[in-house]
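Pilot study result, target chain (79 residues):
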Amino acid sequence: MEKIIMHAPLMTKYVYQIRSRNGAIVDNLQIYGRTEEEAKKKLQQMYRNCEILDTRVVSPERPANSSYEEVLTLIASGR
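Predicted structure:
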């Protein structure tokens, strides 16, 4: 039986610390994006006129490729 490989879109997690337009500091905002620019755009849509104080990149915890069998096993395990 041939193994089917499923390729997930490559997404990176970006973690931000911002100052909102009313001056409140918001820490640990986690946003996924294919690029940093995409993640920033999403952030600025949610928090208009915010100031970005810090940005970190968090590497993905699991590989981007999964076989069909691995996906079914994950679903069946209830995780």
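One observation from the pilot: The chain has two helices and five strands. A full batch analysis is planned for the follow-on phase.
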